[in-house]
Write a structure and sequence with these properties.
With 136 residues, the protein is mostly helical. It is 69% helix and 0% strand. The chain has one domain. The chain is built from 4 helices and no strands. Helix 3 runs antiparallel to helix 4. It is elongated and about 50 Å long. The N and C termini lie close together (10 Å). The relative contact order is 0.15. The model has no long low-confidence stretch (mean pLDDT 91). The protein binds protoporphyrin IX containing FE (2 copies).
Length: 136
């Protein structure tokens, strides 16, 4: 059973990423707060790492997860720098922010295809672990 707190942290991160990438106006206050909340949730997730009872379906998936977390950290850092007077309107930072965001979405695509592929190959509902916490 995957404890509820891990599922809540996961969905919190997933929603912040999707909202910031596709829904919210770029760079507005709410975009910034949501971006920072994602990095806080990721930090909590890493702190709780050792408490996680359920092992990964695919051990190599953890590399994708670390890359996702690293991108979220990069977005917070570049986002923060863009807000400083010194870098106001800096095109390079904006470009880097956008590139990291695209890499993050690509990794999310790998994550979702991995879940899909695993479900198909092993005939199990892999994604249910993030919904009801049961590993099938
Ligand atoms: C989950 C995290 C985040 C994602 C997925 C994300 C994604 C994006 C995307 C796709 C854009 C539009 C880029 C463009 O087309 O120019 C953008 C713009 C922007 N983001 Fe983020 N972002 C995140 C976090 C943050 C954070 C934490 C901050 C600041 C504290 C921030 C500040 C900004 C600013 C100021 C812009 C406007 C840049 C411009 O004027 O083009 N973002 N972000
Ligand atoms: C759309 C944005 C998403 C992002 C950024 C994302 C990110 C992550 C990350 C970083 C992890 C590893 C850390 C953790 O356990 O929280 C993870 C695990 C997981 N995610 Fe997602 N996720 C997203 C969407 C989804 C969706 C739509 C599902 C399907 C219901 C899903 C199902 C899972 C499952 C089942 C695991 C655990 C797999 C394992 O044990 O290896 N995720 N996700």
């Amino acid at each position: 059973m995957l404890p509820l707190k891990f599922r809540l942290l996961h969905w919190g991160v997933a929603f912040s990423v999707l909202l910031n990438a596709f829904v919210l106006d770029e760079g507005k206050q709410i975009h910034r707060y949501l971006g920072y909340s994602a990095i806080v949730l990721v930090a909590l997730r890493i702190i709780f790492w050792k408490q996680r009872k359920v092992t990964h379906y695919n051990d190599k998936a953890k590399y994708v997860y670390w890359c996702i977390w690293f991108c979220i950290l990069g977005l917070s850092l570049t986002g923060f720098l863009m807000g400083l007077d010194r870098f106001f309107g800096n095109q390079t930072l904006e470009d880097i922010h956008e590139i990291i965001s695209n890499v993050l979405l690509f990794l999310t695509g790998i994550h979702l295809s991995g879940l899909f592929f695993d479900a198909f190959k092993n005939k199990r509902k892999t994604w249910m672990v993030m919904i009801n916490g049961e590993k099938l």
